[in-house]
Design a protein that fits this description.
The chain has 2 domains: 30-123, Alpha-Beta Plaits (2-Layer Sandwich); 135-266, Pseudouridine synthase I, catalytic domain, C-terminal subdomain (Alpha-Beta Plaits), CATH 3.30.70.660. 19% of the residues lie in helices and 26% in strands. It has helices spanning 12-17, 55-67, 100-109, 165-173, 223-235, 241-250, and strands at residues 30-38, 74-75, 84-94, 115-123, 135-144, 157-159, 177-180, 195-206, 209-216, 265-271, 281-284, 298-300. The strands form 2 sheets. Strands 1, 2, 3, 4, 5, 6, 7, 8, 9 and 10 form a 10-stranded mixed sheet that branches. The N and C termini lie far apart (60 Å).
């Protein structure tokens, strides 16, 4: 059998034929932004941890294979172990020459079943997935029913008692605006300031499913899960509405509710200034090869049409 010619020695025309265009070492590096979706169940989180399976390492490995050189990616939000993402945004720099279609299809073919790219586009050199973001939106999903769920056990939390959703909504209003969120900041948080601005907190239901969506300029370590845990204390009737306000003012994490399980949390979307051309879409029904998000069949992350249909009702 004839030995295969190493990729580094194959003719450029052959590389292009298989979507592996050559790297132009003399050209200036270009910056690309990616939309990434992943099921966080079997990952130790986004960030690299030596010898463990992380989303960052998995994505960098796939991208490097297509680029034909090592790549480092930077994300909008470092999700914890077990946390999912439908709208994570990352960026990387490369001087490899690839079409958007080659990047998208090539990288997805090198990714495992629990990670996928949703879109890719070239962005200005001053774009940064984390520092250019104006806000991030997380959705927490839980199921309230007497028996434990099976089909959604990886993506939703379960509570067997009924919740007073109206009380939870009123309590959530106390968290809107700019506050010191030390009471919802987990130990190990490295943020220099605990002041954050919550722009939106909505609680919606459909049958036995409950969604808690929170949009803020930024989040502290486990802030969303700690807020959800405290809202559940109010929803179950174990604390008054005033308790949450006092908790916020007191700034003592030990006085708050439990941390909600990671599996119910999803990074739904990230918002950027329009000049970067990054789509504010958490769910793209068709792959986006770099065209305008408004010109494809897409759904904005805050669109109520994303709610599950009647089949989800108990």
């Amino acid at each position: 059998m004839r030995a295969m010619t190493p990729a580094s020695r194959r003719p450029e025309s052959c590389l292009r034929r298989y979507g592996r265009e050559p790297t132009d070492k003399n050209s200036a590096a270009r910056r690309f932004a990616l939309g990434v979706e992943y099921d966080g169940t079997d990952f130790v989180g986004w960030q690299h941890q030596e010898g463990l399976r992380s989303v960052q390492d998995t994505l960098e490995t796939a991208l490097s294979r297509v680029a034909n050189h090592p790549l480092t990616v930077f994300c909008a939000g470092r999700t914890d172990a077990g946390v999912h993402a439908g709208g994570q945004v990352v960026h990387f720099d490369t001087n490899s020459v690839r079409s958007p279609r080659s990047w998208l299809l090539g990288v997805n073919s090198n990714l495992p079943a629990d990670v996928a790219l949703r879109w890719i586009r070239e962005v200005p050199g001053d774009f940064h997935a984390r520092f250019s973001a104006r806000s991030r939106t997380y959705r927490y999903q839980l199921l309230q029913q007497s028996l434990r769920p099976v089909s959604c056990r990886r993506t939703c939390a379960w509570i067997h008692s009924r919740l007073d959703i109206a009380r939870m909504r009123r309590a959530g209003e106390l968290l809107l605006g700019e506050h010191d969120f030390s009471a919802f900041r987990a130990a190990g948080c490295q943020a220099k300031s605990s002041v954050r601005t919550i722009k939106r907190l909505e609680i919606r239901t459909r049958g036995s499913l409950v969604w808690i969506e929170i949009e803020a300029n930024a989040f502290l370590y486990r802030m969303v899960r700690n807020i959800v845990g405290s809202l559940l204390v109010v929803g179950k009737g174990d604390a008054s509405l005033g308790w949450l306000g006092k908790l916020l003012q007191g700034g003592d994490r030990r006085a708050g509710g439990p941390t909600a399980p990671a599996r119910g949390l999803n990074l739904l979307g990230v918002d950027y200034p329009e000049r970067f051309g990054v789509p504010s879409c958490a769910v793209l029904l068709e792959p986006d090869f770099g065209i305008d998000c408004d010109r494809i069949d897409s759904v904005p992350y805050n669109d109520k049409s994303l709610l599950p249909g009647p089949d989800y009702q108990s």
